[in-house]
Design brief:
By secondary structure, the chain is of the alpha+beta class. 18% of the residues lie in helices and 27% in strands. Strands 5, 6, 7, 8, 9, 12, 13, 14 and 15 form a nine-stranded mixed beta sheet that branches. Strands 1-4-2-3 form a four-stranded antiparallel beta sheet. A hairpin with a 3-residue loop joins strand 5 (78-82) and strand 6 (86-91). The longest helix has 12 residues, at 145-156.
Length: 298
């Protein structure tokens, strides 16, 4: 899609300008963040204000496709917590959360159809946040629009605790720390995200050393924001990539076939009952085996 900003559009934010043509401001923002929108041939952030005569081009093929009728094989996942309003899913590694180009079937969102719902895009099936395909662990999922909106608001207020276990290469210089570095789509490798971006967004990650090993360090990592690949990008940026990470580190370390990253704990106030909900997930067998190898390394 291509459009030219009129005199009346001058001074309008890019995401607001595209809200009408794309159906919603959230969809516009998602496409802008994905690098699928250019202004006069250059990617711009959603806060960018257009001038009269600017040519805006949108590659809306970058957006998630409609969910096909045949969703393919069933997805295996555990449900450690569920009530009539929401559920917490324990996702195994290898499962894609949302349908996308190259992953049209066999996704978690499709497996949750009929159980969960909520959000502007029906194909998200009530999912409030996401995990990378090869990151295992916990996700909270709504069963209605009202609960989805409340959980999204809690996430934006940073009232949902998301805690991860990560095994990283080397040893961070401090036992605790905060990585405060904006992240966006990498300006050179468009399939990656990095701190070197034309469209950076605020991102903060907290870490704490749990175990110092001969060549690796086991960390507890807590997200304050939730950008794509945030933990993996931030740990690479400080020189300690996640062990086995094929994109941001070194694939195959310790016999790993994926990055050593597991969403181990979720804690939040239930949006309907007001009760404290806290769910934990143990390390999967492949990560336990890699950890044992790291401990034994000389």
């Amino acid at each position: 899609m291509e459009l030219t900003a009129s005199a009346d559009d001058a001074g309008t934010r890019l995401d607001a300008l595209l809200a009408g043509p794309l159906g919603s401001r959230s969809r516009a923002a998602r496409l802008i963040d994905a690098g699928a929108v250019t202004v006069n041939g250059r990617a711009r952030p959603k806060r960018h204000k257009v001038d009269a005569g600017d040519v805006v081009v949108v590659d809306d093929a970058a957006d998630a496709p409609p969910v096909p009728e045949d969703v393919g094989a069933a997805v295996d996942f555990a449900v450690p917590f569920e009530d009539e309003h929401l559920l917490v899913v324990d996702k195994p590694a290898g499962v894609v959360v949302h349908p996308s180009r190259g992953h049209l079937t066999g996704t978690l969102a499709q497996a949750l159809e009929g159980t969960a719902e909520g959000g502007e895009e029906g194909w998200r099936a009530g999912l409030v946040h996401r995990l990378d395909r090869d990151t295992s662990g916990l996700l909270v999922v709504a069963k209605s629009d009202a609960v989805h909106a409340a959980l999204k608001d809690a996430l934006q207020r940073r009232d949902i605790t998301r805690e991860y276990t990560a095994l990283v290469e080397g040893r961070p210089p401090a036992r605790t720390g905060t990585i405060d570095a904006p992240i966006g789509r990498d300006r050179r490798v468009r399939t990656k995200h990095s701190t070197d971006s034309d469209t950076p967004r605020e991102a903060r990650t907290h870490f704490e050393v749990e175990e110092a090993l001969p060549r690796h360090t086991l960390l507890k990592v807590t997200l304050e924001t939730g950008r794509t690949h945030q933990i993996r990008v931030h740990l690479q940026a400080i020189g300690h990539p996640v062990a086995g990470d094929p994109e941001y580190g070194h694939a195959g370390l310790l016999g790993l076939t994926r990055q050593f990253l597991h969403a181990r704990r979720l804690a939040f106030t239930h949006p309907i009952t007001g009760e404290h909900v806290e769910v934990e997930s143990p390390l999967p067998p492949d990560l336990r085996a890699a950890l044992a190898r790291a401990r034994a390394a000389g």
